[in-house]
Write a structure and sequence with these properties.
It contains 6 helices and 8 strands. An 8-stranded mixed sheet has the order 3-2-1-4-5-6-7-8, sandwiched between helices. β2, α2 and β3 form a beta-alpha-beta unit. It is globular and about 45 Å long.
Length: 228
Amino acid sequence: MSLQGKRTLVTGGSRGIGYEICKIFLENGADVLAVSRDRAKLDQAQRELSGLRVLQADVSTAADNDRIAEWVSGYWGALDVLVNNAGVSPKEIGGLYDLPDYEFERTIAINVTGVYLCTKRLIPLLLESDDPRVINVGSTSGVMSQDLRGVYGVSKAALHALTIASAGELAGKAAVNALSPGWVLTDMAPDAPLHPRTSAEAALWLVTQPREVTGLLFHDMAELGWSG
């Protein structure tokens, strides 16, 4: 699957799933920008992945998303693929109402507000592309059911809702989908059995599907329902 010349931005691209998405997209010919708050991790990723471009930014802030859009506009002039991968889970273990307020606010700020702000800033540049794509990295934890739990699940459910609304507003202009990576090995899941490369392969597959495929949730390469 060639992505030759596709201008791709991956938030949270310095490690875990984001790193593997950067890697596989570069392997398939894309021009990739990794965005992350962690300067040291970005520098390491750039050393390891030939051709990777990097930008330190915090997607939860409007000002940093303005900088991201300015970079894309200045260097590329347009954007073909946006992967909203940056995300966090609470550092403290506890139920929804057991966590400190700042943990709830931090999780929502990065997992939901950050995706909204970044996408909003980049829509004009995405619409300069012949085939614009947006992937939001969601989670089965956010599937609407009686099993929905915790601020992480709430944040991912909100992200899924944002994906549906975005797909509707951009219908006929850009494909917007969510991708659930499953239980893969990351800093948030150090005991997970699967390698994040599997999620990267699914992201690669998803951006090569027909543009009419939009407003959906996928796991691996299969569609999931928004509720269960």
